[in-house]
Amino acid sequence: MMPIKNMYTPCRGEVLEIDTWVGASGKNGMRRDWLIRSQATGHIFARATSTWVMMNQHTRRLSKMPEEVRAEISPWFIEKQAIRDDIPEKIRKLDEATYCNSDLKPKRSDLDMNNHVNNVKYLKWMLETIPDQVLESHQLSEITLEYRRECGSSDIVQSLCEQDKDGFLGDGVKHSGDIGLLNGFSLASEIIGGNGILGSLDKMPIRYTHLLQAKGEPKNEEIVRGRTTWKRKLSTLPFTS
């Protein structure tokens, strides 16, 4: 599982700092967290966390962490979290989708040292299914990935994407206070501008569910489930002086 929250966009030429650390996640897992902030002001632009488990290289199945391994690395654990450890909302499986890219093939440059497709390529495949009008009018504010299986150079991949019908209005309440504040400014400016409540609805975040699956017989196999949230680009300040 890997949630990423992009809270603000840095200015062009701004110098950034990236903090990262590891911590425990249950008995057999570990987590790695990240904070991206302005070097000058300390303002946080993005937060991310990920959960990792051990896998047996021979059986390709999850494995219990040996006690000697945990004893060796546990002194380096830092018990703080970049993103609050709420129970994550389950990402539903897509059986059908409005947007679909098929016959996607990994290139050698997409593979990591284990000959697996890397995370950046997963994101690119997912984002390429987002409608052009959304990419032009919105910016990505949150990503969650849920890994199901490995993807290698021989896999033929299909990328599915569907807009969440119930996520359109719910996001304004469920998301962090920072994102909610921006939505509140947008909502207020729309109402003051004369568009009223209905005119402000297009300012609410849009959420999409994604699925990358490998073509197979007798059925396709899930590689990654994903969820992306998009907020309206703010072309001007919400209030004018």
Automatic annotation (TrEMBL):
Region forming the signal peptide: none
Acyl-ACP thioesterase-like C-terminal domain location: 99-165
One Pfam family of this chain: Acyl-ACP_TE
GO MF annotation list: acyl carrier activity; fatty acyl-[ACP] hydrolase activity
Domain Acyl-ACP thioesterase N-terminal hotdog positions: 11-73
Annotated organism of origin: Tripterygium wilfordii
Lineage: Eukaryota, Viridiplantae, Streptophyta, Embryophyta, Tracheophyta
Protein name: Acyl-[acyl-carrier-protein] hydrolase
Record flagged with keyword Glycoprotein: no
Keywords noted in UniProt: Chloroplast, Fatty acid biosynthesis, Fatty acid metabolism, Hydrolase, Lipid biosynthesis, Lipid metabolism, Plastid, Transit peptide
